[in-house]
DNA sequence: GTCTATATACGGATAGAC
DNA sequence: GTCTATCCGTATATAGAC
């Protein structure tokens, strides 16, 4: 792996562990055993690193969250989405811990973020409409946007919410599964009679994962 | 108003407008037309100021969010809670914009926060059970905790969610009303047949406020 | 590409006069 | 209680050698 890529991945790791604010460029360099000067050879500044991480984040969503087509099995797709959301929430925790701060320091990133989230909202709405078409949920047109916002907010801020509840701000994979359960709770409220059993099955699956022993990770 | 109180209220105002991270003790002093030294006569440090603000926040919740009793009109109480939540979300925006950061810098505050939130969770659960007893909602015991968490998370992170969606991170009172609507969306999913009309009435009320002209504040 | 050394900038906080 | 002046610590970023 190139030094540049190593810097990106070390940054993600340290940011997630200790928070973006607490990790300086010097920390990143020291943890990798390279000099600060070397880090600045590869990146213009700290924001530049974060911008590269955001690109990975966008790419992840873009790759794993393609809208489903009428031919797809809606429920199967839903399960796939949940697993992708798990990965997203886990890998890019730090981003939402300090979202306001990070965006306020980088006008360009903020613009990209806003644009991306607007497109994402439309995508989530499409998914909801597809789930309705697939007879998985019932929902009035007027409520689609509201539910989409709630889903986005939940995925974004579940990890900061959990971190704020414990002294050591560390997260376990189980915590993320609890977040996935919240997504399912939001959907459950709109389930059709015949999909309820299936969605409850998904809930049971993630509940088991959420309550698994930490050592069983 | 004493200088000490003025410092607290100026801090809240500036923190809400520009973010806690961006506002230094020097900014606060300059905005008030006092010297930095004077500010430090009244407060040990920046965290000390924030701790005092947190006390106001706790007090607000403590005063306006008393659990309802079986004698109360559950729906009337619910409407009261929503108005109090509005005030809370509006006044202490900055706190949730940077929650992780703020808590990580002050171990004592973090402990207080965690303890307070744990108690608050129990209180929200009580309220939900009272709403069930008042025949406003139906909910299985197993789902009460999950719903309570969702309500808390929504109230906490709605404002950061909205701020991240616009270039100027400023919030309008309408944005908060949209947040209240999200709380009602969560409750609506559990409404009984006879309460649905009343809850929809509340939704209509806040929808009207949310869509009102900014100048009509 | 990588290093060492260092400049710059600034926020937090204190000392001591009034 | 309030001010002025200033110190200290630290994060970011650069210069220039290798």
Quickly describe the structure.
By secondary structure, chain A is mainly α. The first copy, chain A, has eleven helices and no strands. At the A-B interface, helix 7, helix 8, helix 9 and helix 10 of A face helix 7, helix 8, helix 9 and helix 10 of B.
Radius of gyration of chain A: 19 Å
Distance between the termini of chain A: 26 Å
Helical content of chain A, roughly?
over 70%
CATH topology of the domain at 71-216 in chain A: Tetracycline Repressor, domain 2
The major pleated sheet of chain A works out as: none
DSSP, total strands of chain A:
0
Counted by DSSP, the helix tally of chain A is 11
Helix and strand element order of chain A: HHHHHHHHHHH
Give the largest interface pair and sizes.
Answer: A-B, 42 and 42 residues
How much β-strand is present in the residues of chain A? under 5%
**Globular, elongated, flat, extended or rod-shaped: what is the shape of chain A?**
elongated
Oligomer: homodimer
Task: Name the poorly predicted regions of chain A.
Answer: none
Q: Provide the CATH top-level class of the domain at 71-216 in chain A.
A: Mainly Alpha
Keywords (chains A, B): DNA-binding
InterPro entries (chains A, B): Homeodomain-like_sf, HTH-type_Tx_Regulator, HTH_TetR, TetR
Organism (chains A, B): Pseudoalteromonas lipolytica
Domain HTH tetR-type (chains A, B): 1-61
